[in-house]
């Protein structure tokens, strides 16, 4: 069996919610992972014969994908902001929209440097860190920053710690529940980031099976009658822990952009709402 044969099999046997181009891309990623090859090598050597071990591994991956399991969970890794992360059922798979949030944060850091603000002692906190993709990417790009992250999940914190070590950065991980009004830290931060749960229960029916059945629901969903639950608690926490010249960066539900801004403004923040590359309300910056 050749690499080209594997691509044909993947395209014909992957679930229908994958379009053909996406199926081809999945086949390429699986082959790169199993055969330890680059995308260019894959494209130029589709007639290359696979070893029995490689063939067996690629078919096993396909079997798991046919059950609806996301590719990143099957491979136990995902790419984010040019870095590689371990992922498992304890954490969400990092998404491109969150890369846009990280880019906005880094732009803000660069603006602080241009304004000659104190960036040598910049401190960053990520709330609900999951895989740790946000704080690890920020620390990798702003090595002088002191970066911390909190999550309620032991499994998520263990995964995030592994990712920080794997990517050669030091991040302080803390177990905490942002919904607990008594939760507090002794520090203040120049930047607070969060991609909290924001999908409403009523939106479940519009989500793909491979998300619903495999990604952790506690990191995804909020009640229909309180869709801004996490943002309200994050705002209250930030009132106490955000430095005077600090900024809060949030990923949001596309349906609640103005509502999220209104909530923050009622608590004394000024806000900026931004769209993602697909033109949907996706990010809010808040400051006092």
UniProtKB/TrEMBL annotation:
<keyword id="KW-0489">Methyltransferase</keyword>
<dbReference type="GO" id="GO:0032259">
    <property type="term" value="P:methylation"/>
</dbReference>
<dbReference type="InterPro" id="IPR007848">
    <property type="entry name" value="Small_mtfrase_dom"/>
</dbReference>
<dbReference type="Pfam" id="PF17827">
    <property type="entry name" value="PrmC_N"/>
</dbReference>
<protein>
    <recommendedName>
        <fullName>peptide chain release factor N(5)-glutamine methyltransferase</fullName>
        <ecNumber>2.1.1.297</ecNumber>
    </recommendedName>
</protein>
<keyword id="KW-0808">Transferase</keyword>
<dbReference type="InterPro" id="IPR019874">
    <property type="entry name" value="RF_methyltr_PrmC"/>
</dbReference>
<dbReference type="InterPro" id="IPR029063">
    <property type="entry name" value="SAM-dependent_MTases_sf"/>
</dbReference>
<dbReference type="InterPro" id="IPR050320">
    <property type="entry name" value="N5-glutamine_MTase"/>
</dbReference>
<dbReference type="GO" id="GO:0102559">
    <property type="term" value="F:peptide chain release factor N(5)-glutamine methyltransferase activity"/>
</dbReference>
<feature type="domain" description="Methyltransferase small">
    <location>
        <begin position="116"/>
        <end position="204"/>
    </location>
</feature>
<keyword id="KW-0949">S-adenosyl-L-methionine</keyword>
<feature type="domain" description="Release factor glutamine methyltransferase N-terminal">
    <location>
        <begin position="21"/>
        <end position="75"/>
    </location>
</feature>
<dbReference type="InterPro" id="IPR004556">
    <property type="entry name" value="HemK-like"/>
</dbReference>
<dbReference type="InterPro" id="IPR040758">
    <property type="entry name" value="PrmC_N"/>
</dbReference>
<dbReference type="Pfam" id="PF05175">
    <property type="entry name" value="MTS"/>
</dbReference>
């Amino acid at each position: 069996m050749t690499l080209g044969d594997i691509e044909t099999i993947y395209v014909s046997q992957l679930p229908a919610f994958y379009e053909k181009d996406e199926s081809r891309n999945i086949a390429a990623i699986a082959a790169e992972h199993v055969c330890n090859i680059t995308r260019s090598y894959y494209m130029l050597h589709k007639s290359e014969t696979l070893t029995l071990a490689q063939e067996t591994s690629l078919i096993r991956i396909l079997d798991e994908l046919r059950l609806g399991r996301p590719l990143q969970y099957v491979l136990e890794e995902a790419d984010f902001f040019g870095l590689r992360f371990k992922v498992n059922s304890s954490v969400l798979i990092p998404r491109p929209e969150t890369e846009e949030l990280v880019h906005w944060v880094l732009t803000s850091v660069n603006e602080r440097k241009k304004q000659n603000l104190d960036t040598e002692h910049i401190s960053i906190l990520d709330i609900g860190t999951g895989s740790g993709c946000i704080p690890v990417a920020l620390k990798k790009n702003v090595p002088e920053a002191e970066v911390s992250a909190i999550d309620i999940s032991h499994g998520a914190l263990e995964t995030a710690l592994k990712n920080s070590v794997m990517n050669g950065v030091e991040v302080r991980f803390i177990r905490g529940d942002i919904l607990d009004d008594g939760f507090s830290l002794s520090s203040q931060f120049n930047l607070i980031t969060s991609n909290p749960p924001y999908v409403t229960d009523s939106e479940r029916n519009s989500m793909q099976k491979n998300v619903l059945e495999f990604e952790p629901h506690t990191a995804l969903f909020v009640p229909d009658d309180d869709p801004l639950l996490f943002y309200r608690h994050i705002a209250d926490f930030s009132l106490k822990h955000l430095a005077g010249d600090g900024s809060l960066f949030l990923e949001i539900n596309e349906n609640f952009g103005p509502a999220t801004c209104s909530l923050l403004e009622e608590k004394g923040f000024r806000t900026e709402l931004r769209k993602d590359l697909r033109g949907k309300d996706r990010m809010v910056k808040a400051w006092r």
